[in-house]
Amino acid sequence: MVAFGEVLGGVLSTVSRQAAVVIYLQGELGAGKTTICRGVLKACGHSGAVKSPTYTLVEPYELAVATVYHFDLYRLGDPEELEYMGIRDYFEPGNICLIEWPDKGQGILQTADLELTISVIPAGRHLILTAHTGQGETVVAGVRSSLAESSIRGITISKDAQC
Length: 163
Known about the structure:
Blueprint: H1 2-14, E1 21-26, H2 33-43, E2 58-62, E3 67-72, H3 80-84, E4 96-100, E5 114-121, E6 124-131, H4 134-149
Parallel strand pairs: 1-4, 1-5, 3-4
Antiparallel strand pairs: 2-3, 5-6
Helix pairs in contact: 1-2, 1-4
C-alpha cells in the first residue's frame, strides 16, 4: 500500500495543478487509506511520521512540490463543521487534498478529481481508481504508466482503472 501511494504521489508531484487535486479515499477501517497517504507524502518529499488526523480532521504538510492536506473525516459530526474550519481555503490551486471518509462531508466537500476505493480481500487489497475530472484522468494515466515502468509487482490497472 505504501508502494502504491508512492507511485500515486510521484504522479501527483509532477502533474500540473491549475486547481487543487482532490482525492477521496474510500474503504473500511483498517483498509489502508492512511498507509496510502504515507506513500503519497513520502513521494512528495515528507520524511517524518504520518498519522491519521482523526481528531484534528486535517494535517497540513508544506512540501517543496505542493502543500498536501491529509483529511480524516471519520469523527466529523456534521458536514457544516467543515464550513467553520474554512474548508474551501484548502482547495487552492497547487494543493493536494487527500480525504479519508469523504461521505461524512457530503454536500460541503469539493467534487473529487480521483476516487480511490480500497477493499480488503483474502489475498490483500483490491483498489479501484475512478477519475471524475480531466485532471483525475491525467493522474490515472500517469499511475498506469508509472506502474508499467516500476519494479512493483502485484498491482495492475485495467481499462476500468481497477488494480
